[in-house]
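Order emerges. One example.
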Amino acid sequence: MFSVVAAQVAGGPTTEASVQGGIACELVHLGSLYHDDVMDESTQRRSVETVNAKWGNLQAILAGDFLLARASEIAASLGTEVAALLARTIGRLCEGQIEELRHTYNIARPVESYLSSIGGKTASLYSTSARIGGLVSGFTPAVVDALTEFGDAYGMVFQIVDDMLDISSTDAELGKPAGHDMVEGVYTYPVLHTLASGGVPARELADLLGKPLSSIEKDKALSIVRTNGGVEAAIGLAETYVDKAEQACDRLPNSAASVALRRASGALLDSVRR
């Protein structure tokens, strides 16, 4: 969607090249999810069985590799600049995952590590999608860069919101087990904020974390984070990226597509405020 809408910010129609660019990004996304589910040993995604749960890790890894290969083939058909951009994005996905793995079960994980990880694992895909839409449409470097900055900021909002939902939502609402990140030792911003806030709740949470959690321990940890400002702090962090996304859109041509993009990040954050 971002590739297609980005291609329309100058007021013209979408192009087949922007559609193909969006498909390439979506295939990278899906391929990375297949691999991510293997690493996390996830059994559900979007309320259905994961590929690894249904057919096994080997099949999931090969399917993920195939999707990445098809994405690269499509990107190559759009020119060397798009192909190189997609290759760099796949590298950033890997770097983001490595950064996350470096701090698994680390209750002293720096916030900078969290931001670096989600910047690679999530925001890079959004920024690349928007940038491809601008590149294949022949926009000026200034417009392409503004689209890229918008996509990056939106991606940060998206992942922060997703991490909040892992804490604040039920299993049924998520379509997968709530609190899964904490169980896997991935401590996101709501958890890091609670750990850094001090006092009895922070100490109780620190005593629980640093190792795999039982079901009872997970429920207790979720309760601590939910009731001690972790989610609210994450909303505040997301707001800073909403501002960045809107500022980037202010540099785009005046069009219906630009207005839609400018509203997108705020609408996303508002969806978890209600």
